[in-house]
Amino acid sequence: MRALIVAILILAAGVFRLSAANETDQEVEARKAALDLAGAFSNDGFKMRDGHWCGTIKSHDHALIAVNLYAGNQYWFSVGATAPAKKLAVDVYDENGKQVATESYTSGEKAAAGFSPTNSGQYYVMVALAEGEASSVCFVYSYK
Length: 144
Fold this sequence. Notes:
The chain is an alpha+beta fold. 19% of the residues lie in helices and 45% in strands.
């Protein structure tokens, strides 16, 4: 059922691309949190991708971010938020809307998911605000 929802969301053009538009102070704070979390993966040899996505997510809502990934690489998708966010979730879906298995990390206003695709192509990262009120959120990702 969840895969069907993702497929519908993809078709509804609710997909965000990575960008670097003007940011609010809250988005800058969310990006700091995301970069802080992503920095932990750099200790394991992961490199940061250029670009990020920032925006506001409402309670029990989500953003869907399209990313192009390459087979053989490893990826970590890191998300940070500002208060009043309390819990974030990160899930990854393939181009057909099927959820892929990931390693997960979550700690309050920070969350991450990591995996290695077996096929190159477009994937979708769903960032969800599982608990808390509308908050600024920022997404970055790393690879090796």
